[in-house]
Amino acid sequence: MSVSIASDTTAGPATRFLTLTPLNAYFGARAEGLDLSRPLTPEQIAELRAAMDHHAVMVFPGQKLSDDQQAAFAEQFGTIEATPTLVDQERRRLPNMQINDISNLGADGKILAADDRRRMFNLGNMLWHSDSSFKPTPAYWSMLHARVIPPEGGETEYVDTRVAWEHLPPRMQDQIRDLVTEHSLIFSRQQLGFEAFSPEETARCTPVPQRLVRRHAESGRLALYLSAHIGRIHGWPTPEAMALIRDLTEFATQRPFVYQHRWTVDDLVIWDNRCTMHRGLRYDDKTWPRDLRRVTLEDVAPTLEQAA
To answer: Which CATH number fits domain 19-305: 3.30.70.660, 3.40.50.2020, 2.60.120.1440, 3.60.130.10?
Structure first.
C-alpha cells in the first residue's frame, strides 16, 4: 500500500486545568497541571476524558503514585479489569491485584533468569498490540507508571490507528470495513516461538472475535483494531488473512505515525486501547531492572456489540 501522508492539525478540546503539548503531528499530548495522586473534581475528570478522546495517548510527567493511588485514579474513569496476567499468577510480586506487573522482576524482587518462562512470555510485549484484545470485552484505557527504568532502551512506542484508517486508500477501506478477526494470547506468543502453555492456560486462551474496523464512539472516527493477538479472519484462509494483517500493521506503524516515549521515573502514560497500538522496545533485561506498573480499564462491551 502506498499513500501520501498528511499531518492532522486539528486542535484539541479547550482546557482549563491541563496544559497540553503535542507529542506527534497526528496524536498524543504531554499533560501538566494536575496532581493525579489526589481525587479529581468532576470538571477535571470531564476535561481529562475529553482530551484523551481527542489525543488517544497522554503523558503525565512527575506523578508520584503508590499502587493504591494509581488504582484509585483509574477508578475515576471506569472499571478496572481483572488482572490478566496469564503466566505464573501464583508468584505475583505485587500484592495489589489491580496492578499489572510490567517488569523483568520476580516475586523476590530479583531480575528474572534468562531462561525463565515468565521472561520468555513477556517478550511478546515487544510486538505491536492492543491490551486485552484477546478478551471478549477488551480494554478501554491503560495507565502505565514508571518506577524504575534502565539507563538505556526500554522505550514504549505508540500509534493512533484512527490515523492509519484515515490514510488508507478508499479501495482498501471498502475491502476490510466489515471483517471480523480472532484474537488470542496464543497467537501472539506463537509468533515468537513460545509454546509453553499449560492445558489450563490453553483453555483460558480460546480465540475471541473482534471487529477489524471499529468506531471510536466519542470522536466518531473509525479505527483499525489491530494487534499481534490476531491469528485469523473469519471466512479467509489463514495465510491470506495473516498476510493482510501484516500489511495493515506495517502501514499503521510507519515511522511518521509513531510516537516513541522515553521514560522518566514517575511518568504516567495513558492510552486508549480502542484506537491505539503500542509495543515495548528492547533493553538489557538480563542486567538492568525495569519496573513499570499498569492499570487497565474494561471497555463497555465486546466489539461486535458496539455500533460500527
So the answer is: 3.60.130.10
